[in-house]
Request: fold
Amino acid sequence: MSFRQAFIGLGAGLLVRTCTLAQSTVAPEGAPTPPPVETVRNQVEFSARENSLQVQAPSIAPVEPEELTPTNFSMLEDIAIFSMHQPKLRWSFFGDSAWSYDAYSGSQNDHYSTFSIGCGVAADYGSPDAPLEISGQYAPGYDWSNGPGNSSGVDQSLSVSAQWRPSGRVVLRATVNLREAPGTDYGGGQAQVISGGVDLAGSYALDPNLSLGFDVSVQPQYFSTYGTTQQNSATAFADLLLDPALRVGWYVAGDTISSAASGSEDDLQTGVRLGWSPVPRFSASASLGLNYRFLSHSQILSPDVSASLGWNPSDGTRFTAEAYSLVQPGYVSSSGNPQTYGVSITGSQLLLSVVLLSLSGGYELSTYSQGTSSNQTVDFLSLDIDWRPNDRWSAGTYCRIDHQSGQDEFNHAEFGVNFTIHP
Reply:
């Protein structure tokens, strides 16, 4: 866990699905069941550098009615307007450290620590109001670790994104990212991980109440110990605003996960989703869909269902609750991807306009329909404290406790601190 949760949308609060984010790695056959999602994520994904520069790919928001005015922008005119803007450069210095302890059901206990430090530079060209906007960031750093595999080494990332609005009805976005970092494979050994991705997305407003969109991504990942994995995905959706408080949507998506070490899996999903906000301080959402998995040895049809509630009793206070039943792609094995059932509750409070406290707890049950893997359960409790007194620097700390039972039973405790400086 890093500073990724700090002060992103303080007014709206946090809606965190801590344990249900899909892994993008693929395990070789016979590998042990991976540790909790958050543990693996800390070893492989971005650290505090994600938010150190506060540069994010432009989001594709629903087009408001007043924006549906035809324009006569051509690509050449867009470039001319774009060239009139001066680039805005920013840089930052960041670091984080974490200490973890794992106690297994046998006599084996592990404890390890990690420390990361780095800097970054970001550039924005254009503006959100211009037809064309480009942003990018580069963040080099170094990671030290005495954990599994003693994975230490250079950690650097590069990301470039562009957004183009050829008319008031159309938004197109492209993002390219690349990262090299030390990590561990699912066998527990040291591995240098090179990951990247290309994402193309767009939306089109047919009228003020109906919009169509798509998202296509390719995400390869190379492990120095057992080769390359790749996950490709494509999504198409339609959203209809029935009234100011109710939005209904339909989606269809496909994923392909392949690994030279353990085969491949294809997933096809479709379903409907519903968003309801009758009053400003309350919101609810639900999704009902089906997931059809094509494994190398079988096909499985399973439900994808989720529901969430959000409540802001006062400014700076946010409570959310979520329940879900879904398939977690990204982990190919003889047992197939598990069907996961879970619930989570999160409460957050903004204090003195500079300190954000967030407390989360939840429970998950993962069931396997293939092979010999037994059911796995995970319950967790986490506390995050983030402090941002001004725009130039911020700091945070967190602690987390997990208990996993099943084939691999162990307790996991983790504590960490982080900081970011924007000169």
Remarks:
- The helical segments are 37-44, 49-52, 75-83.
